[in-house]
Amino acid sequence: MFGGTIPESLKSLRGLEELDLSWNNLSGQIPEFFGQFLFLKYLNLSYNKLEGEVPKEGIFANASANISLIGNEKLCGGVPELLLNVCSTKASKKHINKRVVISIIIGVTVATLLVISFVLYYKKKSSRTSSTTSSIESQLCLSYSDILKSTDNFSNENLLGVGSCGSVYKGTLSGDGKIVAIKVLKVQHQRALKSFIDECNALKSIRHRNILKIITVCSSVDYEGNDFKSLVFEFMSNGSLDNWLHPVPNEQPVGIKNLTLMQRLNVAIDVAFAFDYLHHHCETPIVHCDLKPSNVLLDEDMTAHVGDFGLSKFLFESSNNALQSQITSVALRGSFGYIPPEYMDGHVSRLGDIYSYGILLLEMFTGKRPTDEMFKDDLNIHNFVSMAFPNHVMDIVDPSLLFEEENEDDGVEETMMRNFETQRNNKKKMEEFLVLVLRIGLMCSTTSPREARK
Q1: 241-452: what CATH class?
Q2: Residues recognised as catalytic
Q3: N or C terminus of the chain: which is more exposed, having fewer CB within 10 Å?
Q4: Which numeric CATH code is attached to 141-234?
């Protein structure tokens, strides 16, 4: 019983594979954006009141595709195989004239509003306007002086972490007091400039709730005339996953406890959503190349955000329209312990990210780093879990999961866990859960890329 035109809001469903809107009262034209859906395999618009020219791109380009338009007598055009009437010149002209009139009306309206806004701006210029402008500029046009001031001269008290290509500081923007994380690149490092450019290229085109949001960048010079480059991100109040999995004694922030079983699962799901977006739903697929706990940040709600795209690579289509593994001649990408074996030969692919994700899962639920000193010779974290799987997983699980403390103020999640723990088969249920999760980790971290990672 749907009526009216097909809504423009469907345009955002770029991953849509099947859509059936048949036997409704839909009217108007078929939206052209349907032809831009790369994954659309089935489209049924039959028996509606649609009219006008049928698009010719995407799923509409192949009449043998799973597409049905019957029962819409006023449709015309499209590819010849659809056997639709040719769109009349008169109708086209009428449609064009209608669009021209609408465009003129919109243009006049916009121009009028612009003139009014221009006059009001100069008549009612106030301190609030100045404050707003200052706030926008403080976020979008930060200078070296702004960065220096916001971090209190890069004080150690504001230092959040140090990496091979730079340091991350906590900063407070002077315009609106917004707290941010500022990544300052070591420009003298031979890879820092390329890392800065690669991260900017990757982050400028991606938007996802589980990917760290960039606010702005600063490319300038310091007071001594040296190059200065930094990236400004949203601040994640709960730090990195690494700090939670491997807390340093006497350095753990007040109030931080061990991650519960459900919290670890939620983080794992958040990271999986982020990589599903990067690999399958970006305009150009992106390979992260450096997934590890220190690059997974947690906000105040413990929602995970993947960050640090300094080693990321775009995957471009080959001549046969298949996304192929990219071969790079640059230095080895990734962090030791999380690098897939095939990267040793210079191959960069989505399967490499899946390998790193598998190692991350094993680390999250065993509490052991892949670089732990116990892993030497032929023993690594994958083999360590594999030898205990599936009958002895409780022997290798992170001990903190077995001793989750009860807290009367922890809310619904902990209440459920307490009720769960009162049952005699608590340990058995936890074991069954861990077997499922660790199986995924083992499948993702196999040494043969195409053996099981898909």
Answers
A1: mainly alpha
A2: 290
A3: N
A4: 3.30.200.20
